[in-house]
Design a protein that fits this description.
Elements (H helix, E strand, L loop, with lengths): L1 E3 L5 E3 L8 E4 L3 H15 L4 E3 L2 H9 L7 E4 L10 H8 L4 E5 L4 H9 L4 E4 L5 H14 L4 E5 L3 H13 L3 E5 L2 H10 L3 E7 L7 H9 L8 E6 L6 H7 L4 E4 L4 H26 L1
Parallel strand pairs: 3-4, 3-5, 5-6, 6-7, 8-9, 8-10, 10-11, 11-12
Antiparallel strand pairs: 1-2
Length: 275
């Protein structure tokens, strides 16, 4: 099974049919389109819930954990977002698929710590949804290291990445990061703060590049500094990307995805050459 998403994501692996996916949507058009697309691409049979009552019954009649839900905001019997709140309260990872979207809506959705949101405003919406589903179901294959001396910053980034289903390790110093990398060769991405007391982000990146190239580990630097030249210095030290705080969730997730997509493409190319 192989898949190439709109944003460049590539997946080549086994069927994803073992995952239990709920589709909470009252539109016959979209339930048909989404159901057919996920079956075609990933061999996934979705469970369709067209109203709040069907959602409750679907959850209660089966003890099989729900891997992921795809939910509209407004449903018959739940016009004020009750279905989404129900899923969130049950800690079910949820992608929102909605035609109603404003800045306030976006802020409210992210405050509920949903996985993602897709807007029904273009012909590619279903394909974008399929890619978001595939990312969530396969993100656990990726191991990410967060390096920051601030417990608050580490917790914030860790929570964000775990929400997207990544495996996450954390380090509170550059020295600890080097030890974790040596012990975990499967780590494919490191997100590191610039300003740390023992080894700053630049020096940490330089030391890592002495034994790990970009084809093995992607490195994203982050900083709260107002110095715009930090990004240039970080990239020259061997980093792959740089983000200034405060950054928004969508930007952060996009940068993470782009770097992991690049790593995947490099690994696929190497495997083909070795074959």
């Amino acid at each position: 099974m192989s898949f190439i998403g709109i944003s460049g994501m590539q997946y080549s692996g086994e069927s994803l049919s073992h995952h239990r996916i709920l589709l909470v949507e009252d539109s016959n058009v979209f339930t048909s389109m989404i159901g057919m697309r996920l079956k075609e691409l990933f061999d996934i049979e979705v469970e369709i819930c067209r109203n709040f009552l069907e959602l409750e019954e679907s959850y209660e009649r089966s003890s099989t954990p729900i891997t992921l839900a795809i939910s509209n905001i407004n449903l018959p019997g739940a016009e004020k977002g009750e279905a989404l709140n129900y899923l969130v309260d049950l800690s079910v990872p949820t992608i929102v698929f909605t035609g109603t979207f404003q800045q306030q809506t976006r802020d409210q959705l992210l405050s509920k710590e949903i996985v993602d949101y897709i807007i029904k405003d273009n012909v590619f919406a279903v394909d974008m949804l399929a890619e978001s589903v595939c990312r969530f179901l396969t993100n656990h294959d990726h191991h990410v290291l967060i390096v920051d001396d601030s417990p608050t910053a580490r917790a914030l980034l860790s929570t964000r990445l775990k929400r997207y289903n990544f495996r996450v390790s954390t380090a509170d110093s550059g020295a600890a990061a080097l030890s974790i990398l040596q012990a975990n060769p499967d780590i494919g991405l490191m997100v590191t703060d610039y300003n740390m007391p023992d080894i700053d982000g630049f020096e940490l990146t330089r030391r890592i590049r002495a034994f790990m190239g970009s084809h093995q580990l992607r490195i994203i630097g982050v900083s709260s500094s107002t110095d715009r030249l930090l990004s240039a210095r970080f990239l020259k030290a061997g980093g792959n990307d740089f983000i200034l705080r405060p950054f928004i969730d969508e930007e952060f997730y996009c940068r993470v995805n782009q770097n992991l997509d690049t790593l995947t493409q490099i690994r696929i190319a190497h495997a083909r050459r070795a074959a």
